[in-house]
Amino acid sequence: MMPWTLTAREAAASIRTGTLTSVELVKACLERIEHTDSEIGAWAYLDADRAIAQAEAMDDLRRRGRPVGALHGVPVGIKDIFDTKDMPTGLGARVHKDRQTDNDAALIEKLRGAGAVILGKTVTTPFAFASPAHTRNPHDRARSPGGSSSGSAAAVAAGHVPLALGTQTGGSTIRPASFCGIHGFKPTRGIFSRRGCLETSPTLDQPGIFARTTDDLALLGDVLSGYDAADPASYNRPMPELEVGYAASAPVDPLFAWFDLPYGDRLSPAMREGLTELLKALGDRVERLATPASFADVIDQHAIIHRYEFHRALSHDPGLVPAEVDATMTALLAHGARITETEYNAAKAYVMGAEEFFASFFNDYDAIIAPAALGEAPPIEEGTGDAICSLIWTFAGLPCLSLPWLEGEGGLPMGVQLIGSAEEDDRLFRTAAWLERRMDPNEEEDDA
User: Which of 3.40.50.2300, 3.40.109.10, 3.90.1720.10, 3.90.1300.10 is the CATH number of 1-448?
Assistant: First the structure.
C-alpha cells in the first residue's frame, strides 16, 4: 500500500509504532501532488523542504521517546484563509499572495500541538466568497470541486493529504465534500475557534474539516475542538467527544427526520432517486415531516446577514476593488451595501429563533437526513454550485456531516447530509456510525 493512501488514523498509528516515518509519508504525499496537481490546482502555497523539515522534527521526537500527539507526523492541508506564521496566507486574492502574519490561527496551534505537519495552503475562492477559483474536481477535470474550500476538498479527494481544513459560511464544507466524494464535517457553532481565520461573517463563519473516512473526521475534530476566549462564538463548557461518539453503540435504533425542503424540486433526478432509496431502506426509522414555512425565510435571512457582514468587514480591502474582482463579487458587495441596519437586525433575530426551534426538535429525532448538494458537481464554467442545501443548518449553527454514498447521472459522487443537535456532535457521529453499518451490505453478511 502506498503511504499516501493511508487514512490519518492508519498513518498516525504506523508512525507511532515506527513502521512508517513521517518523512516517508510526507514525501509520498509530495510526490502525489507533483504527479497530479498540475491538472487539479489544489495548492496555493507549498514548500517541500519546509514540510520535510517538519516531518524530520516529528520523527526525531518519536525516536527520542518524547510524547507523540494524535496526529503525530500526519500531513494536513490548510485553507488559505487561516493564518500561519511560517508561510503566507493569501486569502485567495492576488494582492495578498505574500501576506504574512506573526501568529498562527487557533486551529493551526491545535494541529501543531497534536504533532501534525502543516503541508501547505490550499486554494480558496477569493476571500472565501462566491467567485470561482481555478481548482478542478479530481474526479473530472471539467467539473468544479465546489467552493469556497475548493482546494482542501480537492486535495483530500486526490490523495494529496488525508486531512484538510476548510470553512463554511453557507455551504463551503458540505458541498465540496459532496462534489469531491469525500467526508466533510461542520461542527456546532463555537466548537472550533475562528481566531486567526479570515472574518467574512462573524455571525455565520464556521470552520469545517475534510477526510476520507468518518473515523478520521472524528479524530481531527477532537484535536481541533476547545474553548477560545478570543472567539465570541466559542463557549466555555465541555465539548462533545467525537471519537467516543463514533465508537459508541446507539442505545436504540436512531430515528431520522426528513423534510420536503423548499428547494426539493431543484434536486437532480439522481439525487432524488438516491435519497428515496435511502429512505426506503430505513423504513420506519424515518419520519417525513411537513416543512415549516420559516425554512424558506431562513434562506433569505441568511443572504441578508452574509452580504451585510461581508461588505462591512471587507469592502475597504484593496483586493476587492473593481480591477481585482469579477461581476459576481461586485454585485454581491453592492447588495451588501444597500442592506439597512433594520433589515440586518431583523435577520439576526431569525438566528435566535432557528436555534430555539432546533433545540427542542432533536428531543424526538437523532438526525435530519438531507441532500448535501443539489446534484453532482457542475461544469467548471458554471461556477462552484449552489450552497442552498446547507444554508438552513449553517444559519442555526448545527453540526453537519456529508457522507459520499450516492452517484450522479454522470457517475460522479454525491453526498448524503446528516444534521444533528447543537452541542451533540458526538451523538451525530454515533448516529452516522449506526447508519454506516446499516447501509453496509458486508454487515448483513457478518451478522448472518
Answer: 3.90.1300.10
